[in-house]
Write a structure and sequence with these properties.
The chain is of the alpha+beta class and about 350 residues long. It is built from 7 helices and 14 strands. The strands form 3 sheets. Strands 1, 2, 3, 4 and 5 form a 5-stranded antiparallel β-sheet that branches. Strands 6, 11, 12, 13 and 14 form a 5-stranded antiparallel β-sheet that branches. Strands 7-8-10-9 form a 4-stranded mixed β-sheet, covered by helices on one side. Helix 1 crosses helix 2 and helix 3 packs across helix 4.
Length: about 350
């Protein structure tokens, strides 16, 4: 491929950039190779989306076209996610930044002929616990016939990163082996909704170390519910916090606008990490909370008469300041109250 000109070639070698037409069931990150000489390259590690948006078609007639367009865009872009909010029924799209979602919505209009209404961009916060807590949960229910019973004792421990680890420390068969995966399943389900504001909670190690069961009333579902309830109770007492996504921002600007650019980044709670030269321009690198970057590109153009450019990508999650945490939790409680 050379811009808009195409040249058919009989083969491609290492280093060539080519376009293959008519290939189905292929996604970003897949490897092409000979069937008799398979080559599997390391998968690309894509970061989780950090910004989300609720959209809906302007007319009900466009519902199918919207679903089709979103499905195709998600297939070709692994950093773009689509899901339906179970509580509100809204279609939620998520991506790596404001501009990313703007481009995808524009593509829906141009390529799939779908006009959409959109809500305000929302930051995808995370939750975490900051201290270890041990909790015993006894789930007991009697409904006339066979009842429900599960008893678990679990220690929840904060750990680095945003993953989840489950440890089975049951000794002596206090909980039958077949019920242990159900406890893990219940905890994993509860992780999706956190304990403060309904955001995913990560960085947790759960150690199941004791419990009991009833020979008649215990079943897998009872232990799943017990695991879920234990998580909610324990993590609410484990000093949970809100984590906010931090973006790595790079601004290339003429020297005369350096002060204005750095002042603006500081007002957005940015941490300047370095500056240097690139040709005749100055380069500023900073870490800035995503929640402070809405409309940043427009403001940067205004501050620099359109002469500066910026790029940003997700860096990491960090504890949000107390006032931001309080706002996020209050907003989440307000939305639940309205529902």
């Amino acid at each position: 491929m050379h811009a808009n000109k195409q040249h058919d070639i009989p083969l491609a070698e290492a280093g060539d950039i080519v376009v293959v037409v008519g290939v189905k069931n292929v996604r970003t990150g897949d490897t092409f190779c000979e069937l008799n000489h398979p080559v599997i390259l390391e998968a690309i590690d894509f970061p989780e989306p950090v910004i989300r948006l609720a959209i809906e078609p302007k007319t009900t007639a466009d519902q199918d076209r919207l679903a089709n367009g979103l499905s195709k865009l998600a297939d070709e872009d692994p950093t773009f996610k689509v899901n339906t909010d179970e509580e509100t029924g809204q279609t939620i799209i998520a991506g790596m930044g404001e501009l990313h979602l703007e481009i995808l919505i524009d593509r829906l209009k141009r390529e799939f002929k779908v006009e959409v209404n959109q809500g305000n961009p929302q930051v995808s916060y995370r939750e975490a616990i900051t201290k270890a807590v041990t909790h015993r949960e006894v789930y007991k229910k009697q409904t006339g016939g066979r009842g429900k019973f599960a008893d678990v004792q679990i220690e929840f421990i904060p750990m680095e990163g945003d993953g989840f680890e489950f440890v089975n420390d049951i000794k002596g068969g206090s909980i039958p082996r077949e019920f242990v995966p159900s406890v893990e399943k219940g905890i994993k389900e509860a992780l999706k909704d956190g304990v403060l504001a309904g955001y995913i909670l990560g960085g947790v190690k759960a150690r199941l170390f004791d419990g009991s069961f009833h020979a008649v009333d215990s079943d897998s579902y009872s232990f799943e519910i017990a695991g879920r309830l234990a998580f909610k109770e324990a993590c609410s007492k484990a000093s949970p916090i809100i984590l906010e996504p931090i973006m790595a921002v790079e601004v290339v600007t003429p020297e005369e606008y350096m002060g204005a650019v750095m002042g603006d980044l500081n007002r957005r709670r940015g941490m300047i990490e370095g500056q240097g030269n690139r040709g005749n321009a100055e380069v500023i690198k900073a870490k800035v909370p995503l929640s402070e970057l809405f409309g940043y590109v427009t403001q940067l153009r205004t501050n620099t008469s359109g002469r500066a450019v910026s790029t940003m990508q997700f860096s990491h999650y960090a504890p949000a300041p107390r006032n931001i945490q309080e706002e996020v939790v209050a907003k989440a409680k307000g939305i639940k109250a309205q529902q």
